[in-house]
Every structure is written in structure tokens, then in C-alpha cells.
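hey team, just a heads up i'm posting the complex here instead of the shared drive bc the drive is being weird again. everything in one block, sequence lines first with there labels, then the predicted structure for the whole assembly after. its two chains so it's a bit long, scroll down
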Amino acid sequence: MSFFRKAWHLYADGFKNLGPVGKKLWLIILIKLFIMFAILRLFFFPDVLEKNFSSDEERSKHIINEITKQ
Amino acid sequence: MEEALVNWSRGQFALTAMYHWLFVPLTLGLSFIMAIMETIYYKTGNEKWKKTTQFWMTLFGINFAIGVATGIILEFEFGTNWSNYSWFVGDIFGTPLAVEGIMAFFLESTFIAVMFFGWDKVSKKFHLVSTWLVALGSNLSALWILVANAWMQHPVGMHFNLDTARNEMGNFWEVLLNPTAVDKFLHTISSGYVIGALFVTGISAWYLLNNRHIRFAKKSMMIAAVFGIVSSLFIVVTGDSSGHHISRTQPMKLAAMEGLYEGQEGADLVAIGVLNPNKTLTNDEDAFHFKIAFPRLLSLLAERDADAFVPGMNDLVYGNEEQNIPPTSEKIRKGDMAIQAIKDYREAKENNNDSLAGVHLEKFNKFYHNMGYGYFEDEKEVVPPVALTFYSFHVMVALGFLFVLLFILVIWNTMNDTILSKRYLLKAAVWAIPFGYLASMLGWVVSEVGRQPWTIQDLLPVKMSTSHISTGNVQTTFWIFAVLFTILLIAELSIMIRQIKIGPK
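-- predicted structure starts here --
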């Protein structure tokens, strides 16, 4: 059996034979990742500079203004 | 910047970082303990060691699964709440974090699958190598995060590009081998090893208290306690080295850790002390209501000379001519000049006057290392919260020494086969688990609260680092995180406790 086939079987068998604790943990991981990326990242955590400015030059200018205004 | 916004952003980062840190240290420590146990199984072929390894591996898996990706939230916060800071640090922070992502992904996620799914499917040797690689991979992940954090405590190996407003890495090796990074990495991972050792010792002690799995518990306990004592001694060495470097790079933090207001030659190290809350920089009250101190030990720790001068907070704020310590007011003046040089440089550039821009650039480079002071109006702003830093440091150290005592007693009684009769010791071992976490958290409090008011030491204060977003948004996400992480913690504890009650097969 080739290396890749063996690796595939290792993962496939591993997931197929997950015990109840393993299944529960994977469920928690998936729910957690969904909350983090599909809810929090999307609706609550935009990249402020990416969103508000269209080029790196504008971003630099904004930061210069920020750090020089007193 | 609005003070409430800064404080909520700071609170949110502290909350998420501390919750994240609840999961990390056990991964760091337990992975090595498992690897040692599996090595014994590999060497002896004794199936009991295999079962022992598998049991601790299950608990490792629970902690890993619940904790995985909780650190990503911190990166979300960089882009949203801390955009000024994120842009300002440029690739200094990005490079180590990118290396961390790649290492964590390839090493941990590849070999963790072999570790869990590969029993009896891959050779014993390959399985053992995978377990060791998971341990090394998780520790190497920590390295890159800690390198980034150390750069904020002691920025080196970069220059600030006035055109892009970003720091650019000039020397990767200087950033990586920054003495603060080396100390921080070694000190932090060894604290994780102690937590791993306390965890295994404590749970084994619980089995012994309940007369269950006695052989398994004694063997696990012995390995964990030996691992714990070696790690504890390593913590003492790295802690001493950290203190020595902090005295050079963050003397104000060291002064706050020790409640030292007036500098001294032959300064004492406080062992136990109660701070006087009415003490301020300018009044003449005693700094302590009560203290027991080791004579001249602080000078020895900080300067490697028991008679050397250690500056206090007053020396650092108001200066000490005799000791050649400039007052903060002078640094504020230099910081103002750096900030003015940025404005003048930009103006010269806009007018296409490159030679004048060059003059301002030179002036900026001369004062850049003090730039952050230009954002302060009052020189006293450079003093961190003294009580929180002082008590966190001293409780952490006291707990560290109690853990050493615990490991010694556990090893002694296990070797003499008297451990079962020492119920007070077994109970103490169980209770030591939460205190291990407490000590580790307090270590971060010392590191992060002690460096206030800075995000990047001497270059960027916290109040200049946040984005212009609504305070309400930060408050909302603060509570979302508080609920989410609390649920995760409850999930971890309930699954873990259930699995512990079931015990090894």
C-alpha cells in the first residue's frame, strides 16, 4: 500500500472508530469554530483598517495621523 | 483615545488571553509526561505502561480539543480593537505568528492524528516519535508567540519606516534570540511543565485517596513528581535570569514587583510583605505596613552584585543624577521631538523636499527609542499598578516554592512506599492543581500588568494602540467571550472529571 493510501486509512479508520468522548469533542470543536469564524469574525470582528481604507498608503497615512495627533 | 474604550479593549484582551492560557500550559507539560511514559513502554514492552500512556493521552486530548483555536480570538482582536498597534508592529508580529501557524498546523495536527489513531496501526517506534513530535510541536508553537510577546517587552531587531508607519524587521535572529524572548520562552514552558506535573500528581493522588488504580497512580505520580521537580528547578533558574534582564530593560516593572519606591544600594528582596495603600510617589509614608526581606538579594538578582544600586520608582520618574538615571520628563521631551520629527518629515515629503525630509528622519531615528513617552502628559503615568504587580509576583513565587516542597515529599514517600498513609499530602496534591493554574496566571499578570502603560515598551502606550470603534461593541463582545469561554471551561471540566472518574482501562 502506498504511503498516501496508508495515511488515508489511518485518518478514515480513526474517525470511523471514534469513541463517544472523541465524537463529543469533535462536536465541540466544530461548534466552536462555527461560532468563531461564522459569527464572531464575520459580524463582530472586522479588520478595521482593511474595511475603512482601500490601500496600504491610506492606512499608513491614517496611522501617521493617529500617532502624531496629540 | 476615549478612556472607557481603552479599558474595555484591555479588559477584553486580558479575559480572552487568560482563558486561552487555561488550556495551553497543560498541553505543554502533559505532552512531555506522556512521551516519557510511552518511551518506558517502548523500552520495556510492558502493556501497563501503554495503558497508562493512553489514559493520560485521553485527558490530553480533551484539553487540546477544548482549547484548540481559542488563541485565534486574540488575532481577531488585533485587527478590530488594536488596529493602530497591529499596523505599527508591522511584520515583527506577523512573521512569528505565521511561523507559529505553519508549525502548529504541520507538526501538531499531523502527528496528533498518528498519536491518537495510530496505536497498533503504525510501528511502535513511529508512534513514539509522533508523540514526541506533538510535544515538541506544541512547545515550538509557544516559542513563536512568546517571541512576539517578548518583542513588545523589549523591542529589538527592527527599524521604523516613516513612509509606511510600520516597524520592519531588520534582523530576524536578533528578534528570535532577544534575551527577553529566550527567558520568557524557557520560563513559560517550564511553568507549563509544572502544571502538567501537578495535574498528573493531583489526579494520581485522588485515585490513591479513593484506593483505586493504586499501581497505576503510584507510577504516574513518581514520573510526574520527578518531571515536576526538574521543571521547578529550571523555573528558578529562568526566573532569576528574567529578573536580571528585566532590571535592564524594564526597571520600572522590577521596582513595582518589589514595591521599591526609593532606589537602594544593596537592595533587599521582599519575601513577604503588606503594602501600604496610602503610599504614593511623592509622600513620605512607608511603602510597607509589614515586610520580611532577604538582605541585599534584590541587588544580587538584578545586577549580579549584592552592593549594586537598584533604582526605585521615584528614581525612574524623577531621575537620579548621582546614578545617571534621567527623569521621565526628559524622555517625554525626547518623545515629543520624535513625534514632531514624524510630522516634519511628512510635510517635507509632501513638498518633495527630500533633503529636509532626510534631516527630520535623522532626528526621528535619534529619538525613536523614547517616542512613546511623547504621549504622556504626566510623568507619573509611567508607573504600573504597583499592588497588583507586587502581590501577583510574590504569590506566584511562594506557590512555586510550595510546589517544590510538594514534589519532594511525593518523591520521598513514593520511594519509601509510605505515600498511601500520607493522606494530608495526597489531599494537598489534589488541591495543588488549581493553585498551579493560579501561579501561572499570576505570572502573566506580573508580565503584562507590570509593563503598563506600554503596549510596546517605550514606543507605544496602550492608550495609543486601540482603534476608533464603539465602546458598546467592545462591551458586547467582551460578554460574548465571557459566556463562550465559560461554557468551554465547564465543558472541559465536566468531560475531564467524567473521564477521570472512569479511570484507566
